[in-house]
Amino acid sequence: MSEPIQLVPNNSLLTKTPEEGRQLAVKMARLIIKVTQPDAAVREKLRPVYADDASMLIAIGQTVATEFATIAAANNYWRENK
Amino acid sequence: MSEPIQLVPNNSLLTKTPEEGRQLAVKMARLIIKVTQPDAAVREKLRPVYADDASMLIAIGQTVATEFATIAAANNYWRENK
Amino acid sequence: MSEPIQLVPNNSLLTKTPEEGRQLAVKMARLIIKVTQPDAAVREKLRPVYADDASMLIAIGQTVATEFATIAAANNYWRENK
Amino acid sequence: MSEPIQLVPNNSLLTKTPEEGRQLAVKMARLIIKVTQPDAAVREKLRPVYADDASMLIAIGQTVATEFATIAAANNYWRENK
Amino acid sequence: MSEPIQLVPNNSLLTKTPEEGRQLAVKMARLIIKVTQPDAAVREKLRPVYADDASMLIAIGQTVATEFATIAAANNYWRENK
Amino acid sequence: MSEPIQLVPNNSLLTKTPEEGRQLAVKMARLIIKVTQPDAAVREKLRPVYADDASMLIAIGQTVATEFATIAAANNYWRENK
Predict the structure, then answer these.
(1) Tens of pLDDT along D58-71?
(2) Nearest to residue D26, comparing CAs of D77, D68, D74?
(3) Residues F62-72 pLDDT 10s
(4) I need a labelling partner for D12 at 20 to 30 A (CA). Which of A50, B31, F12, F75 fits?
(5) Where in the sequence is the domain holding C59, given as residue range(s)?
(6) Using the beta-carbon criterion (under 8 Å), do F32 and A82 form an inter-chain contact?
(7) How far apart are CA B73 and CA B70, in angstroms?
């Protein structure tokens, strides 16, 4: 039996920088795909399907943008960083 | 006759951690599918359709991201947790 | 002549619980379909089309998630309930 | 020459009730279609295309939900009405 | 060589009225298409493709709704106008 | 081995003007495509696919709109600029 998949790395939305927040958005988006399709072999087979498809690449961008909106709000947009 | 489907587990958006909030987002997204298609046999038949389809996996990610945005706001982004 | 369709049940976004808020989101999403396609016979014919289609079930979930975001904000996420 | 299309009826997002706000969301969504396709004859021809298509009905619901989110926020969710 | 495309007319999200804000949303949505496909001849060829397609008209409405949400928030929903 | 792709140029969401904020939204949307499909040759091949497709151009507009919403909020909508 596999362990349950952790959906939020480090169990926190708070990051030091926008760059790290963006990386977290990408990871969180991928982890939803992982929990919906837990079979690594199937996911590996699907990777070139979306990576070579313009329409799906755009759709992934939409999902990451939505995740990032939440993470950016959680971090008060890293306004103190500047 | 089946019981009415509960759409919000525990009838609350508040969770202890981001991880639990994310799990709630996944559950709430699935429960909308359940209430729209209450027949478990049909849902079981549809599962491999979307789990093996890159485009649908991305779309599920978009829906979970939207649900999570609401749950994260409800919990003030778990800022006190850090 | 048919009566105009009421788009917001009880003419309020405020509900006692998250569960009732979620039910309202589902109803409001359905009422937009009703006002766009007022013919009940056509709607009845379309129901199995989307209920048996994985892609459309996911899209319905996306719409409900967006409606729910508004309702949840209106109710301050039912934070006082806990 | 036709007059320019008014995109926001009454030039205001403020409405007395959620019901009126919802109606405004539907109208604003339709007016974007009108300004993009100003030819009434073409729009008339397209109406049954989307009204009989489950997938497009859902997509219309998504757009109305997004417009309504803005209108509801503008009206502070009509919280004073209750 | 062509000049760089200005993506935000007047370099401001602030408008006097909701109507002007809505027009800005339409323009900003179109300018993204322009910057992605800078060839005017191609864009001209694509115009009837989306203007005659119910599904694409709805998708344009979704994009404008999202742009408008930002512009409306920037203007505090023109609440002072009433 | 290639260097890791920087996802947020200058590691900040803060910009001087709405125009610069909009350019950042476009860049951030493109960088997600880049990190999902790191092979420049494949991306180059996909460019005409979406740039000549009305439906994909609209979808890109949707993604940029979502990224811009976050950037605009981060900058308090550049209200002080006026």
Answers:
(1) 999 999 999 999 99
(2) D68
(3) 999 999 999 99
(4) F75
(5) 14-75
(6) no
(7) 5
Asked whether residue A21 is assigned to any structural domain, the reply reads: yes
Contact A32 B82 (CB under 8 A): no
| D contact set with E (CB within 8 A) | 6-8, 11-14, 28-29, 32-33, 35-37, 42, 46, 49-50, 53, 55-56, 59-60, 62-63, 66-67, 69-70, 73-74
- Residues A66, A68, A70, A72, CA torsion sign: negative
Stretches where chain D sits below pLDDT 70 are 1-2, 81-82
Amino acid at A65: A
What residues in chain B have per-residue pLDDT under 70? 1-2, 81-82
D8 vs A59: CA distance, rounded Å: 30
Domain count, chain C: 1
The model's pTM is 0.96
- C13 closest CA partner among E32, D18, F43: D18
CB contact under 8 A, E29 and F54: no
- Residues written for chain E: 82
Does the residue C9 lie in any domain?
no
Contact C32 D72 (CB under 8 A): no
Domain assignment of residue C34, yes or no = yes
pLDDT digits (tens, 9 = 90+) for F2-56: 678 999 999 999 999 999 999 999 999 999 999 999 999 999 999 999 999 999 9
Angle between helices C18-36 and C54-74 (to 10 degrees): 120
Confidence of residue E82 (pLDDT cuts 50, 70, 90): low
- Give the residue from B59, F43, E42 showing the smallest Cα distance to A54: F43
